[in-house]
Amino acid sequence: MGNRKLRVLSVFGTRPEAVKMAPIVRLLAQSAGVESRVCVTAQHRQMLDQVLSLFEVTPDYDLDLMRDDQSLAQLSAAIFTNLDPVITDFKPDWVLAQGDTTTVAMTSLLAYYHRIKFGHVEAGLRTHDKWQPFPEEINRRVAGVTADLHFAPTEWSKQNLLREGIDESIIKVTGNTVIDALQYVSKQDEPAEITELIMSLRAIAKQSPSAGGLLRREEHPPRNDIGNDDKKLILVTAHRRENFGRPMEDICQALIELAKRGDVEIVYPVHLNPNVQEPVYRLLKGKDHITLLPPLDYLPLVHLMKHTALILTDSGGIQEEAPAFGIPTLVLREVTERPEGVAAGTLKLVGTGTSRIFQEAKRLLDNEIAYAEMAKAVNPYGDGHAAEKIIQALISNDLS
Ligand code: UD1
């Protein structure tokens, strides 16, 4: 290819993709010999924009595709129609996308139609159940079929790809860029909104004498102080499509039961999807010891996690961050594509049934030994140099 620079187009659309792609696009921008451009589908608008400004990433193309009540098919069609001219205009050598959203599946297919190489970041995650998570399990399989380079975060994800017949020479185990991103934001000061939130929760704790002490600033890894009189902060996030409807309501009921204990403060940043907003605000708004927040930006979320004794979540990314912090996490799903944290003992799959969630949380809150067994900081997701390894692999693949 002579002296022409290697052209790389990075495409992403939602908040978690932006978090995990940011370390790559920041490094691509500094790489000699690379011409890097960023295209956001903006499948999410507000939640994406927060992350772009945190990581100081300015998109070269913004498709601005979020619409109210948009179906998966409509979004897919819009990505096809609007990304097509971007690829024609830039003529990249590589298209990169991360994970398992609609943006990723459609981008990978479009790269194939243009006969352009596709690199899949966070490749090889599988539940082997096409309905859980829906539609992410099929989205990542589609990306896996079209990819020319698979950036597997762990050996386990590499093995999944090998079992699907992918040639070992095009699989690189890189670690997960979520650790690169965590290192970037952990260095920054605690944002004022989190300091203020913790102060206001402490004020509530003081007003309820039965609970005694104050909410503690947790160390990294969190100290095992469950079992004393301190109030415990429980962080909740839940937004998965397969949990819409009854499961979401059951999760809310479990939170109501937990809040009645009086020795916890539950903080729930609520995803902007209306299918999440409606039941959560209807069931939980105004309940004692439950604080509902707008979705948090990545920086405040990471800093809030440092104060957290226990996490309840159906999110993918938090299943990777919680083991790094050693925060016991109950996963509100039946299956996970991230068994590394379960194997390490920090995560436990509990499903979405009210009584199971309540009992498992109660066990951790009441039993110091059970808590200590889960509160081990482990990091199965690499050394924070995943982005470097990915870019190196792109460059050397192109030279070979
Ligand atoms: C998507 C991804 C999911 C990922 C999640 C992270 C798919 C199929 N799913 O799910 O894998 O875990 O994002 O957040 O790609 N909304 C806003 N503002 C925002 C974001 C969302 O108003 O900043 C509302 C809009 O009404 C939007 C709706 O949420 O239409 C749903 O967003 P959508 O991208 O369709 O799916 P998610 O359920 O968010």
What does this molecule look like?
The protein has 400 residues and is α/β, with parallel strands linked by helices. The chain has two domains: 186 residues, Glycogen Phosphorylase B (Rossmann fold); 185 residues, 3-Layer(aba) Sandwich (Rossmann fold), CATH 3.40.50.2000. α1 packs parallel to α2 and α1 crosses α7. It starts with 5 loop residues before the first strand and ends with a helix. 50% of the residues are buried. Uridine-diphosphate-N-acetylglucosamine binds next to α1 and α2.
Instruction: State the CATH superfamily name of the largest domain.
Output: Glycogen Phosphorylase B
**Secondary structure: helix percent:** 40-55%
Class inferred from helices and paired strands: alpha/beta
Q: What share of the residues does DSSP label as strand, in percent?
A: 5-15%
Radius of gyration using CA atoms only: 21 Å
The counted number of beta strands is 13
Bound ligands, each once: uridine-diphosphate-N-acetylglucosamine
Number of folding domains? Answer: 2
User: In terms of per-residue confidence, which ranges show pLDDT below 50 for 5 or more consecutive residues?
Assistant: 209-229
The run of helices and strands is: EHEHEHEHEHEHEHHEHEHEHEHEHEHHH
CATH topology of the largest domain: Rossmann fold
Class of the largest domain, according to the CATH hierarchy? Alpha Beta
What's the number of helices?
Answer: 16
Strand order of the largest sheet: 3-2-1-4-5-6-7
Amino- and carboxy-terminal Cα gap? 12 Å
Largest sheet: 7 strands, parallel
